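queue> pop job 88
queue> type: inverse folding (structure -> sequence)
queue> payload:
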């Protein structure tokens, strides 16, 4: 399942991020890639330990923690510190799958990457190309979203970033270990949660059928979740 999450950051937060990124020192993106992805990766990144990456990462994490759609879709257990990338003209990231396990920089903690997320920080009219192409069972999806919007997709998917042919594309990207390891139960829980919220909107929070369904939702989480 591929989910677009609008307005993770508002316009002021996007411009705050952009100002910090404009002044930051960038490094070759291959520094954080495994051997297969390094061979197809050609972009720039903010060093993970840099003050800029930490400052911006906190803004993104804070926004994610308040985003009901993100929380419902990802059911996050751990989120890796957000990273930031830039593709100038001619830069691209060829087809790859993200590493299954990643170390949290500067700690012994490792996370399993269940979900990958790109939060767009450039407006679509600032660059040509640069679509994030995600392969799904139903074909390839090309994703290019307004600045401040994010796409969440299973880390099991093959994906690539098309070459940028004019302008530059900046984004935040990060990985999530979900409380629900597998895509299929996670998607069902998301559907159920969204449906319950719709029912509650129509019938009120104390509608008996919605209350029973809310019970089912939590009991399924109890059944499936790793904490
Ligand atoms: O830039 C993007 O949208 C995705 C980056 C990516 O796939 C990666 O760093 O593994
Ligand atoms: Fe990737």
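queue> result:
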């Amino acid at each position: 399942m591929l989910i677009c999450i609008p307005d993770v950051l508002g316009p002021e937060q996007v411009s705050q991020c952009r100002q910090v990124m404009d002044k930051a020192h960038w490094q070759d993106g291959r520094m954080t890639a495994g051997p297969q992805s390094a061979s197809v990766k050609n972009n720039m990144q903010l060093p993970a330990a840099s003050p800029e990456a930490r400052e911006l990462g906190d803004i993104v994490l804070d926004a994610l923690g308040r985003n009901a759609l993100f929380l419902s879709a990802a059911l996050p257990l751990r989120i890796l510190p957000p990273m930031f990338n830039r593709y100038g003209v001619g830069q691209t990231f060829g087809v790859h799958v993200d590493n299954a396990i990643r170390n949290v920089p500067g700690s012994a903690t490792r996370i399993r990457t269940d979900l990958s997320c790109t939060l767009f920080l450039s407006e679509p009219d600032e660059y040509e190309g640069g679509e994030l192409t995600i392969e799904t069972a139903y074909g390839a999806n090309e994703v290019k979203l307004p600045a401040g919007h994010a796409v969440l997709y299973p880390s099991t998917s093959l994906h690539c970033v098309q070459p940028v042919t004019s302008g530059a594309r900046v984004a935040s990207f990060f990985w999530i270990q979900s409380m629900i390891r597998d895509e299929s139960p996670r998607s069902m829980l998301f559907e159920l949660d969204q449906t319950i919220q719709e029912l509650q909107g129509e019938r009120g929070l104390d509608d008996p059928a919605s209350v029973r369904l809310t019970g089912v939702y939590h009991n399924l989480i109890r059944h499936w979740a790793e904490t």
